[in-house]
Amino acid sequence: MKQVKQVVLIIQDVHLEVGIQAIPLFPALAGYCVGLFTQLGMPIYWGMGILIIIWIYLGVSIVSCIIHRHQTVVLSGNTFKLQKKTLVTLDVMMVVLWPIPVIVWALTDHDQATSEKLLIDVRIDPRNITWIRDRGVYYMEKQTPYVTLTMVSNIVILFAGTAFCMAIFAHMFHTLRKDRDKRSLSTIRLIRRSLIVLFVQV
Q: What pLDDT shows up at residue 181?
């Protein structure tokens, strides 16, 4: 799993720093890209969709790594010990299901003409940021309840995922202490040290 994370991080860096080079214009829901891919004609929301999917897979690889490490710590007979088939199913579901909303958004979102209409409509954003036309391929989004809900849900998912990972680490340390009679002291020390390293890396 470490190798997967490293590969995903390299792909992210190449796509973000070379492919799209996205420059957001917060608090306006707008931005522009000056990267190679967008200059060659890739729609900006495709580029952003690919970036979000990369981030999703980075999160998937981290969560999967923690779950698999958890399964090596808990012993047989533990309530949270999962079967190998269940672990494989969980991995497949995370890989397949999580990117679907982003793919739908990237393929169905509005085109450049819609961004242009929103850009010149002062009711959408009175800050007059029409200068972004000269900077590169640009994107403008209208503030809607759906967009607000999406932002809030992303924040909730982030905090929920963090809490989930923290809970798994807490359970692993608890299991080590609880089952200390079933392992040698040296093994417990090695496992504890590896968990600390993994926690710091995450």
A: 82
pLDDT band with cut points at 50, 70 and 90 for residue 2? low
Note the pTM of the prediction, 2 decimals: 0.77
Q: Does residue 183 register a pLDDT over 60?
A: yes
The three-state DSSP-derived secondary structure of the chain is CHHHHHHHHHHHHHHHHHHHCEEECCCCCEEEECCHHHHCCCCHHHHHHHHHHHHHHHHHHHHHHHHHHHHHHCCCCCCCCCCHHHHHHHHHHHHHHCCHHHHHHHHHCCCHHHHHHHHHCCCCCCCCCHHHHHCCEEEECCCCHHHHHHHHHHHHHHHHHHHHHHHHHHHHHHHHHHCHHHCCHHHHHHHHHHHHHHHHHC
